[in-house]
Amino acid sequence: MGFKDLFKKKQPPKPDPLKDLTLSNLKKGYFVDYDLKTWEVTAANYYDFGQGDVTREWQLKNEEETVYLEMESDDEEFWSLNRKIPFGRLGPGLKDHILEHEDPPEEIVFDSVTFYLDETGGGHYFKDEQGPGQEFIRWSYRDDSGKKLLDIEQWGETDFEASVGERVEEYQFTNILPREE
């Protein structure tokens, strides 16, 4: 190291295209192709369900829509792609049912598909991997095939969100590129 090297600004390390550009290493500002469209990663979040049970989530946007890519890691990685829907589309009495019984029903029919309660969990949500985390409860449903998904999340006493999605495979996402600086 020479004298001039002491005053050089350190550059952030560039991604190693053979090692770092994988779906599970997506970062805010990256681009990825899916379903013949290019998506920008606009947020990288995670859900901590406690005892090391963490689900990672990336918000992907293109000119037309916003979707959420999630990765659960149990014995194997489970990828899903979800779209938020207005909670009211699940039925007018659902919110009252949850508030009265502290749980939604075991079955929910949405868009002519019957979803069955699969998992229930609570934890903390970390938007952009920051902060102390916001408490939530999630009820996850699947259809008979296990490919179509429906999630209900409760944030606070009476605030609910819903999303529908589908199981996806990592190979369906290609051309992962970081944003040029």
Give an overview of the whole structure.
The chain has 181 residues and is mainly beta. The protein contains one helix and eleven strands; from the N terminus they run E-E-E-E-E-H-E-E-E-E-E-E. The chain has one helix spanning 94-101; strands at residues 31-34, 37-48, 54-61, 66-73, 77-85, 107-110, 113-126, 134-142, 148-155, 159-168, 173-177. The protein has an eight-stranded antiparallel barrel. The longest helix has 8 residues, at 94-101. The protein is elongated and about 70 Å long.
Low-confidence stretches: none
Compute the CA-based radius of gyration. Answer: 19 Å
Order of helices and strands: EEEEEHEEEEEE
Mean pLDDT: 92
Quaternary organization: single chain
Short précis:
This protein has 181 residues and is mostly beta strands. It contains one helix and eleven strands, in the order βββββαββββββ.
Write the layout of secondary structure elements.
Elements: E1 31-34, E2 37-48, E3 54-61, E4 66-73, E5 77-85, H1 94-101, E6 107-110, E7 113-126, E8 134-142, E9 148-155, E10 159-168, E11 173-177
Antiparallel strand pairs: 1-2, 1-11, 2-3, 2-7, 3-4, 4-5, 5-10, 6-7, 7-8, 8-9, 9-10
